[in-house]
Amino acid sequence: MPSLWPTPNTLAEYALNQFNNLDFFDISLVDGFNVPMDFSPTSNGCTRGIKCTADINGQCPSQLRAEGGCNNPCTVFKTNQYYCNSGSCEPTDFSRFFKSRCPDAYSYPQDDQTKYIYMPWRDQL
What we know:
There is one protein chain. The chain is α+β, with helices and mostly antiparallel strands. The chain has helices at residues 56-59, 73-77, 80-83, 93-101, and strands at 11-15, 22-28, 37-39, 50-52, 65-66, 69-70, 105-106, 117-120. The protein has one domain (11-120): Thaumatin (Sandwich). The strands form three sheets. Strands 1, 2, 7 and 8 form a four-stranded mixed sheet that branches. A two-stranded antiparallel ribbon has the order 3-4. Strands 5-6 form a two-stranded antiparallel sheet. Strand 5 (65-66) and strand 6 form a beta hairpin. The two termini are 29 Å apart.
């Protein structure tokens, strides 16, 4: 599905007081990458933060380069292989490029090896 926002952009996603009174957060590169990010809680209730601080813009594959960032291949190639519209998809060389530099971040829509970080509700991000 095409993004509602101009790409490329690094996304921080979070939801508060969800299932079992947990908060969750993640970093997504599904819409590409434009800025490094370090997303960390400020309380002791959560054991770790997540980050994507690699120089992706400087190392971006030439096919994905864009002004101000590094596009997701879906934006560039517009094929089901990268959109994951068929209900399932596998990592590609491009998603592996993002994942190798930012292992905490989602690198394609069905990057299920990356899990949200959960923490008790009322702990602060």
